[in-house]
Specification:
Layout (H helix, E strand, L loop, with lengths): L19 E2 L6 E3 L3 E7 L6 E2 L5 E10 L4 E11 L4 E8 L5 E4 L6 E10 L11 E11 L4 E14 L1 E8 L3 E2 L3 E12 L4 E4 L4 E8 L6 E7 L5 E7 L4 E7 L8 E2 L3 E3 L1 E2 L2
Parallel strand pairs: 4-11, 13-22
Antiparallel strand pairs: 1-3, 2-11, 3-5, 5-9, 6-7, 6-10, 8-9, 10-11, 12-14, 14-15, 14-18, 16-17, 16-19, 19-20, 19-21
């Protein structure tokens, strides 16, 4: 359990992704200290792959009429009393705090957290995570929040695309295959992701914009297959919007030259 005097029990490193979070009511506190804003990774999702590590920033903006003295923070998954994942310094090390320009009462405090996929307990920790914080003011006021906000941790996804035949005659049928896979944090590999809506997209040569041609559902092992009529030179790719636990992905475009029919 996270308490002011013993947060250290939950200060390991785990996988997560992030969004900007909203503040919550205080669980304990004294005086006028309050949380203004909590942001993880600049408000962008942190999508973690099957291997490697990633560093993101936890930012907490707080205010008190006497000014902010210091702040502490960490993130956790599961219940507050019995989390199954956590990351951050907790109460071991204070965050780095700097006054907001032009303000004597408000400061933004930050800390960097490095995570890796194999430090997660299992794939089940993908999803909603919480931010715990404790902030102390110069006049000894304080605020403790069990959940200053929530955000998402996601497994990364990958897509491949292969269009054939190459080249193809105008008006003939083009077949585009591929596969959708996602990170498996349990074994450090990528596995097929079936049953997902994936868009087949085309970008005409010389253009910078892809247009959706059709949508298919990934099959066994994440397999993808669709046909289209060839008309002009361009790039074919698959695009996946992501889910609440898996990040978005786009395959590299596969260029196909179209000859006269």
């Amino acid at each position: 359990m996270f308490i002011r005097s013993a947060v250290t029990a939950l200060s390991g490193a785990l996988v997560l992704s992030a969004l900007a979070v909203t503040t919550a009511d205080a669980d304990s506190g004294e005086g006028d200290t309050h949380i203004v804003q909590v942001v993880v990774n600049g408000g962008k999702p942190v999508v973690v792959g099957a291997t490697g590590s990633k560093t993101f920033t936890l930012s907490i903006t707080a205010a008190d009429n006497s000014g902010v003295k210091d702040a502490y923070g960490l993130v956790y998954h599961g219940s507050f009393d019995n989390p199954d994942g956590n990351a951050g310094p907790g109460s071991d090390t204070p965050m780095s705090c700097s006054p907001v320009p032009g303000s004597e009462t408000t400061s933004t405090c930050t800390t960097d957290i490095t995570i890796g996929p194999r430090t997660a307990h299992s794939n089940s920790t993908a999803g909603i995570w919480h931010v715990w914080t404790s902030v102390d003011a110069n006049d000894f006021d304080y605020i403790d929040l069990e959940s200053a906000g929530t955000f998402s941790m996601k497994r990364s996804a990958r897509l491949t695309a292969d269009a054939s035949p190459e080249p193809v005659a105008a008006g003939k049928t083009l077949t585009v295959k591929g596969a959708l896979t996602r990170a498996n944090w349990d074994n450090g590999t990528y596995g097929g992701y079936s049953g997902q809506a994936v868009k087949l997209q085309f970008r005409k040569a010389g253009s910078t914009t892809y247009s959706t041609v059709k949508t298919v559902t990934s099959g066994t092992g994440g397999a993808l297959k669709a046909t289209a009529t060839a008309s002009v030179d361009g790039y074919w790719r698959w695009s996946f919007a992501g889910t609440s636990t898996t990040g978005a992905a786009n395959a590299p475009g596969d260029y196909v030259h179209v000859t006269a029919g």
